[in-house]
Amino acid sequence: MRRIIALLVALIMVLSLTACGGNGGNGGNQEAVIPGLEDGVLTVAMECAYAPYNWAQEDDSNGAVPIKDSPLYANGYDVMMAKAICEFNGWQLEIVQTDWDSLIPGVQSGLYDATIAGQSMTAERMEVVDFAGPYLYATIVCLARNDSPFASAHGLADLAGGSCTSQSGTIWYETCLPQISGANILNPTESAPAMLMAVASDPNIFVCTDRPTAQGALLAYPELVLLDFAGSGDDFVVSDEEVNIGIAIQKGNTALLDAINAYLATLTVDDFNALMDLAISNQPLGE
């Protein structure tokens, strides 16, 4: 709790500096023109359906932000981070809701200035967009029902031959599940909520995800158990690029990249984790 309070105090101090005419991350260089931000508005895309990273809610409680062209509001770790970045740089924030597969293409085309959406900084993605960050480091875990034959798994070997799935277009599905010997990999789900609903309703499967998503899921689905194989010697093998979570921006927009990174450089791993803890505690429970 003290880490959360310390981080919130730091964010309030940043906001105070902005109100007094400071410009935080760009060192007071207001004359620099950042492509896409000529109007002073940072347009950020996310699913608004990927708690605790981001979600939609009916009101502005806990600092939620209106979703463009929607009666709903966005909140979560990504929204908190977007707000802090904008406060640091003296920008206004606009949140746009879109599906997972449209995030990167939207940045490529210039439809959005950035995506802050819990995306890994993979080499494949970095071929088409640039990434600021990381703004979080996420380890890989699995989820199963507490009455599942996989509930007591201590390593990947205990999942061998099991039926499993994860969200489409993620390293969880494309990189991690194939590492399980003889795994019966089912069709991917279209979203994280669909993935969580699938495992919560079927004791015969398990899913692969990252720790923040799993921690949030335990609040919404108490019948689930988190399977973390770190330190077991029988864990998923992933590279830094696959667990470093970044902010995608249009290729070559160095000014925006530097402005976002300037804020992120003021934070520590403990700050990231404290803010994620706050997001997890604020998230709405699953339906």
Give structural notes.
This protein is an alpha/beta fold and 287 residues long. It folds into 2 domains: 2-136 and 242-282, 3-Layer(aba) Sandwich (D-Maltodextrin-Binding Protein, domain 2); 140-229, Periplasmic binding protein-like II (D-Maltodextrin-Binding Protein, domain 2), CATH 3.40.190.10. It contains 10 helices and 14 strands. Helix 1 runs parallel beside helix 2 and helix 1 packs across helix 10 (269-282). The longest helix is centred in the first third of the chain and has 18 residues, at 2-19. The model is unreliable at 1-30 (pLDDT under 50).
CATH topology of the largest domain, which one?
D-Maltodextrin-Binding Protein, domain 2
Ends distance: 27 Å
Radius of gyration from CA coordinates: 19 Å
Strand element count: 14
Helix content: 25-40%
Q: What would the average pLDDT be, to the nearest integer?
A: 90
In DSSP terms, counting alpha (H) and pi (I) runs of 4 or more, how many helices? Answer: 10
What ranges have pLDDT less than 50 throughout 5 or more consecutive residues?
A: 1-30
Please identify the structural class as seen in this structure.
alpha/beta
**β-strand amount:** 15-25%
Task: Assign the CATH superfamily of the largest domain.
Answer: Periplasmic binding protein-like II
